[in-house]
From TrEMBL:
Annotated Basic residues bias: 1-18
InterPro entries named in the record: BTB/POZ_dom, CRIP, Cyclophilin-like_dom_sf, Cyclophilin-type_PPIase_dom, Cyclophilin_PPIL4, Nucleotide-bd_a/b_plait_sf, RBD_domain_sf, RRM_dom
Native source organism of the sequence: Dentipellis fragilis
Gly residues biased stretches: 404-422
EC number: 5.2.1.8
Protein's name in the database: Peptidyl-prolyl cis-trans isomerase
Amino acid sequence: MRRTKGRSRWSKAGKPRKDHVTDHQRLRAALLQHAHVLILGETQHFERGLPTPERQPRSPVIAMALLLETSLGDIVIDLEVDACPKTCENFLKLSKMYYYNLNAFFNVSKDFLAQAGDPSASGTGGESVWSLIASQRGASDVPRYFKPEIIPGLKHTHKGTVSMAVAPTIEGQPVGGCGSQFFVTLADGIEYLDGKHAVFGHVVEGLDTLDKINEVFVDQEGRPLKDIRIRHVIILDDPFPDPPGLVIPDSPPTKPPDNSTRIAEDEDPLEELPEDEAEKERRKKAAAASALTLEMVGDLPFANVRPPENVLFVCKLNPVTRDEDLELIFSRFGTIMSCQVIRDKKTGDSLQYAFIEFDKREEAEQAYFKMQNVLVDDRRIWVDFSQSVARTNTTWSNNPTLGSRGGRGGRGRGGGGRGAFGGREDLEGTRRYRAGGHDDSDSYGMVFDVPGDDVPSCSQPIIRPMVPFDIPYEASNTDVVLRSNDTKPIDLRAHRCVLSSASSFFSTMFSLPQPPSSDPSLLPVVEMSEGAALLRPMLQFIYPVPDPIITTLDELVPLMGTAAKYDMTGVLSRLRACLVAPTFLKEEPVRVFAIASRFDFEEEAKITSGHTLRINVLESPLCDDLKYITAHSFLRLLNLHRHRADAAQEALIITDEVKCMHCNGRGAYTSFALPRWWLEFRDRAKEELRVRRRRT
């Protein structure tokens, strides 16, 4: 197990840390210990063989140094403001605008150099401060680069030399030059760079940090595998006035500009969690995987579902204990909505556990505390809250010889057939846990049994009667005619304002100037490439009238293509909802997935992919919609089937250390074994998953 720890100024979530040192006085005092005091600057110019510039004497000031806070340590740089004023001004102003904050060292060559200053971390980005100010104002007359200041006396002689990278001539720029990218040398005597790049500073503190950068692991392109970032730049003194238009942001950026997916600069990939935390995390992931498996095979409606709080699980029952006996015993704690002992699917014998549903959660809690380890029919029962969330069966019992029980919770009270309540066919009782109106007496209730077509579902769409299309074609206030491309064209009158509000295409078209008409009484005609059979339902979606009822995918696909063609976003959103209707997902899930992939509907494709798990994709009938999807989309669907099948088979493996003490007893001479119902379920599930895995 791995764990990340944040010691940087910015956390993994991109928020500034409160405990970061931001006291500029303390930082200024630290820099004063390392800065050189200069009177006129002649000393350094004399030592480096530079001519002493003629200027007016000034009072003693601190050398123009700044501090780079990196993820590997701090670096203090002295700038050559007298020899390279334009380059130093560009570097200081970019630092003042937080331009270098969170930039990465994207090119590190061992014993050569470390390069940074490109927000995109690609080596092709970056610009000068004057170009940046112009781009913020929307101007394009300022070149991206400025002329490099290459001084013969400033060479890459010593380790820690700071130079501005000189870009070559590129398309769209008259000449190359300096932008924002800079590098620091990691070794002495790199004469190869002399005269090619502009030296403008020297590292006076932080050589140990350069050693750490020099030892990092990089990929084949020289990019460190673990990000090295400039967390913050602190300017000690800025002798240059701000250029016109310079705007300083209110706060530093909190997110890296290059959106790197590498190891974060505040992440330790080698650190491990303590044993107890690692075990806790492992159990959490195993539980999530098991829940996902149960969702895949259909036993859970969704992985994050929570079990009910008013249902108790009672086990270690005597085989002779009946439903009525438990109901009588537990009824003293409150109203019982259902009480059923689970029985064998073939013989009808008791499996010695039951589910008891109370009307209120408080009643279930009281029964849980009072009935634990109570003697019932010479057996001490075990009571716990139910963790089952399956709602596929109408009753708890799957015994075919007993049938469905009525009597409470609206299940057949007062007689009547399916859906009847109180003797009336038009009434239905309130449905509670596992309650429904379907008696599936021929099914064992296993997760792989597919119910018949006559099973009612609360998720089925409500079928509305067809509403007549009531758009006033002959109304006097219509101002445009849409003419279909049928053999006998049909003119459909409409309103410009309605079409413009529904489609940006029509809005742009109606805003264009039109030639004057010879007959003002005639309405303008728009020749459409669609037929009237497609234009009529499309107008019905646009106008404030009930939407047409779409019963087949053959009707839906042309409407979606037309809505996308004319950029009708509102209509397209309603058609997307129709695409994932339960009827289509049940009958043609593969075709629905193909349509969603064809129109780049990511959410609908994810929903549909889950519904394809109950069928074999390779044996599904071919449809023309599969011609329009990419091989990548179809391969993703096949990989989903393979991974879900593999995960389900792994979840069915239970080690020998896992025992059910409540079902097998806990005496000194009791042999522990897996329950019989689990062995049957496991064998059947493995066989089904093995067949599905082989087919896909």
